[in-house]
Amino acid sequence: MKVIYLLVCLPALLAQPTPEDIKKEWRELIAPYEELCANESGADIAVIRETWDTFVFSHDPAFKCYIWCIYENIPYLYPNGTINIEAVIGSVDGVTNEVIEKCIEPYGTCPDKCHGFWAFDHCLSDVLNLTTVKLDAPPCSVRK
Ligand SMILES: *[C@@H]1O[C@H](CO)[C@@H](O)[C@H](O)[C@H]1NC(C)=O
Ligand SMILES: *[C@@H]1O[C@H](CO)[C@@H](O)[C@H](O)[C@H]1NC(C)=O
Ligand SMILES: *[C@@H]1O[C@H](CO)[C@@H](O)[C@H](O)[C@H]1NC(C)=O
């Protein structure tokens, strides 16, 4: 019986999460901080909700700071403000080390924290095929 169960369920276990699955998990992860981060950043709740409905990222500077606030609260950042890759990996289905690597190099250590974590998050959404409007921003990470 166990063998049959495994054979039946294996395809489901191996299946990649769909973009819709990933979006749903992300929305659930950040929901507790929506009001707090809207307050702190001054971003409009309507702009925030519109972005996560469509994954067409708002370019509003306040929205960019809302993303930084989200990253601090999940938390995706160490207390010193740098990104904690281990915390990001697997926090949402499909967010693997390989996906993160594509975004950390260009956008992981930007001097402007609001723009940087916004661009990093946008990049992850692009790599995961969540968004139809891709990021159009030059790399800004500081070389060490
Ligand atoms: C956000 O601001 C509103 C209006 O000032 C306030 O009522 C609410 O408690 C604040 N929420 C959080 C989570 O800070
Ligand atoms: C920030 O903190 C993390 C974890 O303690 C550490 O690995 C990293 O080197 C620190 N980065 C800076 C720029 O201080
Ligand atoms: C995103 O879409 C491209 C083109 O269809 C595909 O090659 C790639 O594997 C997809 N990425 C993910 C993470 O599903």
UniProtKB/TrEMBL annotation:
Signal sequence interval, chain numbering = 1-15
**GO molecular-function annotation terms?**
odorant binding
| The keyword GTP-binding is annotated on this UniProt entry | no
| Coiled-coil parts of chain | none
Is Electron transport set as a keyword in this record? no
User: Which controlled-vocabulary keywords does the entry list?
Assistant: Signal
Q: Name one Pfam family in it.
A: PBP_GOBP
Q: What is this protein called?
A: Uncharacterized protein
